[in-house]
Design a protein that fits this description.
The protein is 38% helix and 15% strand. The protein is an alpha+beta fold. The protein has a 4-stranded antiparallel beta sheet, covered by helices on one side. Strands 6-5-7 form a 3-stranded antiparallel beta sheet.
Length: 215
Amino acid sequence: LDEVHWSGPPDKDEAGSPNVVGAIALAKAVTVLEEVGMEAIAAHETELMEYAYAKMKKIRGVVLYGPTDNLKNKVGAIPFNVGSMHNGLVAAIFGSEGGIGLRNGCFCAHPYVKRMLKISPEEDRRLTAEMVSGNKADMPGLVRASLGCYSNEEDLDLFIEMLGRIAKGDYRGKYVINRATGIFSAAGFAPEIPANLALYEPGQHVVDRFPSEAS
C-alpha cells in the first residue's frame, strides 16, 4: 500500500453502509418526543412512580433502594430486592411466569450498588475472588423495573400482582442457575442454540436449586 486518500468527515469516520433506517427512526422518535413534550413525559413517569411505590411499600419482604419519596427529580427506574432471594431468581420468575422483563445485577454501577447493599470490603473481595474463579452464583445486585412514556397503571398492576406472589413464594416453577454466568432459567427450558454460537456445553456448571415452595 503506497498511499491512502481519505474522504472528508463524516464519511471517513463512518465505515461501511450507513444505518439509514436507524437514522430515520431516530428522527421520527425525536419528532414524537417533541410533540408530546418532555415535561409531560416527566410528569407521567412521576405519577407512575408514585403509584408503584405506594403499592410496593405495602408488600412484606420487598426492599426498596434509593429515594422513595419526593419523586419529581427521579427518573423512571425502580430498584428493589425481595427478601433474601437472589436478584437473578426474582427477574427469572418475572420473565418466565409473568411475561415481564426486568433487569437485574449492578447495572454498570457496581460501586454504587455495592454501597446500597452495604457489602463490606471483605465480602467484596470474597465475592470478586469467586467470580474471577468462574463461579458467579452469588453475584450481588438488585432488580430494576423501568418505566417509559408508554407505561401505564395497568402495566404496574400486573407488575405489583406478580411481585406480591413472588414475595409470598407463590410461584410455580423450579429454577436452575448456571454458575458460570450467574443466569437463572426455568428448569427444563433449553432454547436451541447452534453449536457454533454456544459458549458452554449443555449442562456445564448448572445446579438444580431454588424450587418453589408450592412444588
